[in-house]
Amino acid sequence: MRKIIPVYVRVPVLFALVFMAMEYFIDSGEKPAFIEYPMVSVFLFVFLFTQIAIEIVISAMDKITYAILTEEQKKQLAETEAMGITETAWYKKLKGFFTKSKPIEEEDTIILDHDYDGIKELDNVLPPWWVYLFYITIIFSVIYLVRFHIYGGYTQEEEFQKEMAEAKIAVEEYKKTAKDLVSAETVTLLTESGDLASGKEIFNTNCAACHRADGGGGIGPNLTDAYWILGGGIKNVFTTIMEGGRDGKGMVAWNGTLKPSEIQQVSSYVLSMQGTNPPDAKAAEGEIWQDETEAPTTEEGAENADDKDATEETAADTEEELQVAQN
């Protein structure tokens, strides 16, 4: 019935530990878990109520048990409760695990014959925890020897290479969901309406002053035609916004203001304005940009067709000359 930790310490500490554990393991974003999820608050309230109820029940049982004790038992209980913590059985057992030294009164039984200028040496045994740890290392070494040197387990280099490969895969998987790790090499064109709406909002806030809200161009170039000063396509547009335009007269770099995911959104929105032909648009600047992965333009196709026809005509003339020569 003796309580080492008082109830006014035990109840708050246990409740605080449970509260911190729930806050740690429950993902509630920026808000505390008990605010984001009402059921957490209900659980904490029930837990605290149960704690108090248990303490009340234990206290009542202690009183009832004490009331039925004999006078001799009450006297023994009083002596036990008056005993210091260092005199309890569990403390002596715990102390024996860490040290087996003899009391000062019994040191004469373990004094060795060595005497150095009056300094005598005691033959104390090693601490039990040290001995147990030594035995554990012996068992571990035997298992290690059999596992890695007899049955040929993996080497440290193989383990390192395996962990590096797993880490690389984990990083690549993380990059797929971490939008702000996007770069010019990994950026892709966004087509979802939500992304384009976010890109439009960013454009109107930061870009419309120079390019107009409709992209027709003002101080900056027209973004709705097929002409580009630093190249079109998502990768080029992303790089231009991220790193800035031409030195001295181009657009400033936005990598210090916008996140990579926001630059991807506004780049995708800029490309979505292609061909909108707003009124009073600025004259074209730069050159027509053609994606290498796309099919050739009509002019290029016509040139290729002319080359093909010329080649066929040359081949026909050559064949005709050969026939004349044979005749």
UniProtKB/TrEMBL annotation:
SUPFAM superfamilies in the cross-refs: Cytochrome c
Transmembrane spans: 7-26, 38-58, 129-146
Domain of life per record: Bacteria
Ranges for domain Cytochrome c: 194-274
Transmembrane listed as a keyword: yes
Name of the featured protein: C-type cytochrome
Keyword Mitochondrion: no
